[in-house]
Amino acid sequence: MGRLFGFLGVVIVLAIGMYVYSKQVQSSSAPAGANTPKAAINITGVRSDLIGIATAERRYFASEGKYASLDELISTNYITVARQRPPYSYEVQTSSSGFRVVATRSGDNTYGTPAQLSVDENMEFQTSE
Q: Strands across the sheet with 84-85, in order?
């Protein structure tokens, strides 16, 4: 009887482990809700671009004492990123106390990608469907 409970305990622990593992694989294989590998790659590229723009914005603020528009960052060679990564286009929203870099998707959502991704001066990401 003791062997039976021991065996059942091992089976239950393995089942719980497989469940947790499958949930982690699902969440790591689809960043920001992308449904296809192409969309996941695109979202990863957009997130990388947003980080690059936000980092440039922080460097610009450190040297100039104010935040800059996307055009200013490009013209002063703080960044070399393009203004868009289809189907997303980028914009920088600035204020005296901070900034927000926004990537907005144009067109329909055929791959489950978010309508907007943004990062702020604290390097915190937000998404909206």
A: 84-85, 88-94, 99-105, 116-120, 125-128
Instruction: Give pLDDT tens digits along the chain (129 positions).
Output: 778 888 888 899 899 988 888 777 665 544 555 667 888 888 889 999 999 999 999 999 999 999 999 999 999 999 888 788 888 999 999 998 999 999 999 887 767 788 899 999 999 999 887
Q: Structural domain boundaries of the chain?
A: 31-128
Instruction: State the CATH class of domain 31-128.
Output: alpha beta
CA angle 11, 17, 21 (to 5 degrees): 145
Element at 91 (helix H, strand E): strand 88-94
